[in-house]
Amino acid sequence: MCERGRGKVTLENYAIEMLGITKRFPGIVANDNITLQLKKGEIHALLGENGAGKSTLMSVLFGLYQPEEGEIRKDGKKVEIKDPNDANDLGIGMVHQHFKLVECFSVLDNIILGVETTKGGFLQKDEARKKVMALSEKYGLQVEPDALIEDITVGMQQRTEILKMLYRDNEILIFDEPTAVLTPQEIQELMSIMKNLAAEGKSILFITHKLAEIMQVSDRCTVLRKGKYVGTVETKDTTPEKLSAMMVGRNVSFAVEKKDAKPGEVVLDIQGMTVASKRHKNNAVNNVSMQVRRGEIVCIAGIDGNGQTEFVYGLSGLEPLKSGTIKLNGEDITHAPIRKRSMMGMSHIPEDRHKHGLVLDYTLENNMVLQRYFEPQFTNKAGFLKKKEIHSYAERLIEQYDVRSGQGPVTLARSMSGGNQQKAIIAREIDKNPELLIAVQPTRGLDVGAIEYIHSQLVAQRDAGKGVLLISLELDEVMNVSDRILVMYEGEIVGEFDPKKVTVEELGLYMAGAKKGGGKNE
């Protein structure tokens, strides 16, 4: 709420005030009379469920959207922010949930894009390079300035985005879900970077779903629910349980409820899988053999960039194998096309929901039947789509999985929040009733209520006698959801563990390559 009138607190305390902001889209009020106040030099967390209006509110502050009502003040003075250039001129920078980088440009070119120094029509990169490297050194943001964006890890892409803000001397920094794509180690690095930035007087707005991060790094937290303001609390005076109840409107269970697994016959059998790397001469995946049985959740854990992505590409048919075999229900699918794998019972929740999960400019209902539109349920004998059936099918999944969208089945996928895009993919893949469910980072960017639901769905698939292969960077998820853990390091399986018997510290040593050859009973 507005803090004017509380004794000594004055307008001068605030770097930014968003007062009574209302933003509407077709069929939805994304922000309904929201007030948010950011103090100078503080880290202020913005918490809410998927689709609560957090990213929309920050996009209003950054000039990507214009509000229908309300005003923005900087240092107590009303300002007009018509576009991101106005925001930059006011010292406001933003790292978006889905990075805004030119993939075929270098790191350095992305950082200086739009504010290049030229002389006689030629780019002057030497001074820019010095400034970027000085900022990189000062804030611990290690980057390779000449590397192409398409060749670097998501962690380095994010460091590039942060350096873009610092290069422009931004004083107000917006981080939209900054840890959603980072490894645990990178998250800790980012937390310390944020603290350093705040200590230097920069003011940070930090959108996240992760309550542990809010408790660790923020000074205050504002909670939104379904587009409305719920409250602002001092972080030191609250608990994760209180925050989650404010966010979802009910108490949330942080423990995954599941009985002991009862593994059955082998559903997935991989022998000697090798996948070439596009980045270097070594193989991305090297001679991996493993099995998944019905009625178990097998998790591949590891630090990002150790071959998990290429492993899933090889398994799902997105990349060819250099050598090795894959069998699904005893049938060799090593060279099978993607559609055949899907029809044989393989479902895939992909790592990159925009690149491999959705057609962003299709409606939600068309995305829901992407892999099934040719089935008699959705296409008649003449080859025409049964649009009514597709519409009602999408309506059922939207309701069942609580996919929030402004216009229901006809909502464009692009216009939905990242978390609701993820829920749409999960609904589609689980409803196919697969024999094998491959879930790659399934809860990335989801709120605690949605995470609780997705974990229960994975366990339900297991209990229905399906095989579940989970690839996760979240150690809490790995420990709580899996029945068996395989650690991947530099493209090889270096250990197999029972989550009931292994510690997080032990797993961390294998993930970092400090130990190899771990057995289930260690």
TrEMBL record:
Keywords: ATP-binding, Cell membrane, Membrane, Nucleotide-binding, Repeat, Translocase, Transport. Its main location: membrane. It is found in: Cell membrane. SMART domains: AAA. InterPro entries: AAA+_ATPase, ABC_carbohydrate_import_ATPase, ABC_transporter-like_ATP-bd, ABC_transporter-like_CS, P-loop_NTPase. This is ABC transporter, ATP-binding protein. Residues 16-251, 268-515 form the ABC transporter domain.
